[in-house]
Amino acid sequence: MGLSLSWLRCRTKRPPNGGLFIYRAGKMRTIVYIDGFNFYFGVLRGTDYKWLDIVKLVKHICHIQNPDIDIIAVKFFTAPVMTALATRGDKAGRSQDAYHRALKNSYPNTIEIINGFYVKEKATPPRYKKPADKLDRVEVWKLEEKQTDVNIALHLYRDAILKNCECSVLVSSDSDIEPALHFLCQDFPAHHIGLILPRRQPTEENEKTRPANASLSKLADWTRSFIRDEELKKCQFPPKVPTQKKPAIKPDYW
What we know:
The protein has helices spanning 36-44, 54-65, 90-106, 148-161, 178-187, 214-217, 229-234, and strands spanning 8-9, 28-35, 69-78, 111-115, 117-123, 140-146, 167-171, 192-196, 222-224, 240-241, 248-249. By secondary structure, it is of the alpha/beta class.
């Protein structure tokens, strides 16, 4: 199956004298940075693919983009579910824990789960109606994820400074990370950057797919613009994942 230009784009920054980008010879030590919150809402929500072997998926995509990529670490940025506001309550927390145990026991030397946290506070947004009436407001709980963007940006830059990798692959469409990529390009011009946008393949039936992020793509050496359903299907964990204690079991509602 050939690659489509709609899902593979190269950084607009060109080398001197009108040359072309050429992948360096030999394997590139690569770290992948996954925005778990962004990935869930862009790809997994409302699907049957939540029991996803995300390490297998990013290895598959990176190999297509550049076979010389050697993934030495995958950093998964997330936050513990706030069960008090979750639709399934404590069950949601147990499901997240099972998924994290499946990841850590399947890839003990590769995966690192980095937690932020959620904050809930009272908010009074306008009630939804047309036309909008700013005086007609309703009290709600506002839930925000904290530290994820900052954690991703700092890990990206720190790993480059310490020469922990030669290539960084970001899995996010969050524009808040754009400054970190900009400084990576500016301060480490030889550092390779890949971008996987967490969005499903656009189809006529899937009209709600989020748009591609051009501001991030222009800073990357290559961009994978969407993830195919068949790729998600092929990268599922088995229903039971062995661990050192009891197995991690796929939640029945996933």
